[in-house]
Specification:
Layout: E1 6-15, E2 18-28, E3 33-38, H1 44-51, E4 59-64, E5 67-68, H2 83-90, E6 93-96, H3 108-120, H4 124-137, H5 153-165, E7 171-175, H6 183-198, E8 202-206, H7 210-215, E9 219-224, E10 227-232, H8 234-239, H9 244-256
Parallel strand pairs: 3-8, 3-9, 6-7, 7-8
Antiparallel strand pairs: 1-2, 1-4, 4-5, 9-10
Helix pairs in contact: 3-4, 3-5, 4-5, 5-6
The chain binds adenosine-5'-triphosphate.
Length: 257
């Protein structure tokens, strides 16, 4: 059987006495879109940060297309890679944050081209061409010269998605990408994410948008107290959850809508 495109095995992460990830395993096939849902503080963001080694797990391992993140293909498994190489590996994994995290003093174009030039070694002309294509794709052609503060939250998040795509990632991680947006701006970001999913991007999405989870995800994973307690197709997990914690969470959400 071929190994999964992404595999996170038995990830553990503690902060002092607090266990944020308590042995999390998750596999994803190429092109799969997995929505991670769960209560605030259950460890969903920590999972994303451990997967791309922004915050290395205490134990467990992550592999993307067979390559162990933080260690590298063919490297002795007991020897971690230098930070520079981990950064290069991380470039294969795009991340979109809740608060966009654009550089405020850079224009949209500068935000998009700096990392591909520094990490991928693209010339300014190559990076600019790629950036213009991606801005077109997220519906922001013509805004190259704008500064982040001149854009709406939805536009800034679309720039952040384009910025991540500029690195030609093989896996995209989204950490509550619409939570900081006014409700009327959520749809434009979800639309960009949907088209990315339709193009076959492998995506792990922490979200409170149940419509996105129901309509776009291939699988939903419910997270509780540092563990995935239930995973399955959206129709199964969202409509007939088996675990009492999932049932309680979804009932709470339904009541608040
Ligand atoms: N750098 C850190 N130092 C100490 N504690 C942390 C750190 N990062 C996360 N935690 C703790 O780990 C727990 C899980 O946090 P995490 O952000 O992963 O949860 P979450 O499920 O993503 O929640 P939310 O939906 O609110 O973002 C929280 O209780 C948080 O306080």
């Amino acid at each position: 059987m071929p190994s999964p495109f992404v595999s996170a095995s038995n990830l553990r992460k503690t902060y002092g006495d607090f266990t944020a990830l308590d042995g999390v395993s998750l596999s994803m096939d190429r092109g799969e879109v997995v929505a991670v849902i769960g209560a605030s503080g259950s460890g969903k963001s920590t999972l994303l940060r451990c997967i791309n080694y922004l915050d290395p797990p205490d134990s467990g391992e992550v592999r993307v297309d067979g390559v162990r993140i933080g260690y590298g293909e063919g490297a002795r498994e007991d020897r971690a890679l230098p930070e520079r190489d981990i950064r290069r590996q991380r470039a294969e994994i795009g991340m979109v944050f809740q608060h966009f995290n654009l550089f405020p003093h850079f224009t949209v174009l500068q935000n998009l081209i700096e990392a591909p030039m520094a990490v991928r070694g693209l010339s300014r002309a190559e990076a600019t061409e790629r950036a213009r294509d991606l801005l077109n794709r997220v519906g922001l052609s013509g805004r190259e010269g704008a500064f982040p503060a001149e854009l709406s939250g939805g536009q800034q998040q679309r720039v952040a998605i384009a910025r991540a795509l500029c690195m030609k990632p093989r896996l995209m991680l989204f950490d509550e990408p619409t939570s900081a947006l006014d409700p009327e701006l959520v749809g434009e970001v979800i639309a960009v994410m949907r088209s990315l999913a339709e193009e076959g991007m492998t995506m792990l999405v922490v979200t409170h948008e149940m419509d996105f989870a129901a309509q776009t995800a291939s699988r939903v994973a419910f997270f509780d107290a540092g563990k995935i307690v239930e995973t399955g197709p959206p129709a199964q997990v969202l409509r007939s959850p088996q675990h009492p914690r999932t049932q309680a969470f979804l009932q709470r959400i339904l009541r608040s809508h």
